[in-house]
Amino acid sequence: ARITLRQLLDHAAENDYGVPAFNINNMEQALAIMEAASSLDAPVIIQASRGARAYANDIMLTRMMDALTEIYPQIPICVHLDHGNGPATCMTAIQAGFTSVMMDGSLKEDGKSPGDWAYNVGVTKRVVDMAHLGGVSVEGELGVLGSLETGMGDKEDGHGAEGKLSHDQLLTNPQEALKFVVETKVDALAIAMGTSHGAYKFTRKPDGAILAMHVLEEIHRLLPNTHLVMHGSSSVPQDLQDIINQYGGQMKPTWGVPVEEIQRGIKNGVRKINIDTDNRMAMTGQIRKVLTEHPSEFDPRKYLKPAMEAMTKLCKQRFQEFNTAGQA
Ligand code: G3H
Ligand code: 13P
Ligand code: NA
Ligand code: ZN
């Protein structure tokens, strides 16, 4: 059944678990997630970015979500817009049947310059007012994602702030977070704590200097009833890097967010954990492997099936690690 983000995260808070929010762009990724969710009785958040909507077409996405709820009637599914950049994008997602939208006002509509306080509160409040009229949930974001090691916003994957940012911008201010939630009435709040999108988050295993768990803990102390969201939460597992590189890929050495830090986050109010990169890597590793080992193969199912299985395996791991398993 379709469920809103608010309904799902309220249940997660009451029962002390976290919910991974997996990005999709196509049928293979959607089926891989649902296979994992149904085999473990886990509720899911399936999210699509603006890029995913442009890639797959809203009508295709809508019908696919309908199909998933029909195939898996026992699994609660929240369909969420990832990183909406303005009221119009959020409204068209709602029209397409999304039960939750992110209004990311941490960046201006150009997706490059940080949004100031007045812009962020104003645009987020506007989306909340509209979405709530239709029973749709809203995630907001305060603070800009980017690296505390380099001070750079995460431009790498095509969206994120450009250029160098101060620690003030890269770390959500807890007092401001409190004000932001009260003024906007968002259902969930994404915070900046040193994570960034993509595979290249950290040059070493992160410690408190570059992954600011203390900021998260302070925000949770001030806002114990607010559902917090961790973006850029792929762990970028070494074994997935190895498979890609073993079969002709060229990923540079890198670190992601360790699962134990996410688990610590879940003890401190984190309810939604955004993961895309890990699944991209899981699929790509298998596709590279099949095509390298069987260069004469050209039936897409021959590499997409193992790719889906690798993604299902990753999703199952996260459902177990975040205690989502068994909560459907
Ligand atoms: O926020 C980033 C997600 O990984 C989605 O990425 O905009 O390339 O679809 P995308
Ligand atoms: P990753 O790139 O770490 O998977 O983060 C995804 C994300 O935050 C989507 O909004
Ligand atoms: Na999101
Ligand atoms: Zn994100």
From TrEMBL:
Pfam family for this entry, one: F_bP_aldolase
Domain of life: Bacteria
UniProt keyword annotations, A-Z: Calvin cycle, Glycolysis, Lyase, Metal-binding, Zinc
InterPro entries: Aldolase_TIM, Class_II_FBP_aldolase, FBA_II, Fruct_bisP_Calv
EC identifiers of the protein: 4.1.2.13
Single GO term (MF): fructose-bisphosphate aldolase activity
Pathway: Carbohydrate biosynthesis; Calvin cycle; Carbohydrate degradation; glycolysis; D-glyceraldehyde 3-phosphate and glycerone phosphate from D-glucose: step 4/4
Co-factor requirement: Zn(2+)
Catalytic activity: beta-D-fructose 1,6-bisphosphate = D-glyceraldehyde 3-phosphate + dihydroxyacetone phosphate
Cofactor note: One is catalytic and the other provides a structural contribution.
UniProt function note: Catalyzes the aldol condensation of dihydroxyacetone phosphate (DHAP or glycerone-phosphate) with glyceraldehyde 3-phosphate (G3P) to form fructose 1,6-bisphosphate (FBP) in gluconeogenesis and the reverse reaction in glycolysis.
UniProt family annotation: Belongs to the class II fructose-bisphosphate aldolase family.
Name of this protein: Fructose-1,6-bisphosphate aldolase
Species of the source: Rhodoplanes azumiensis
Gene it is expressed from: fba
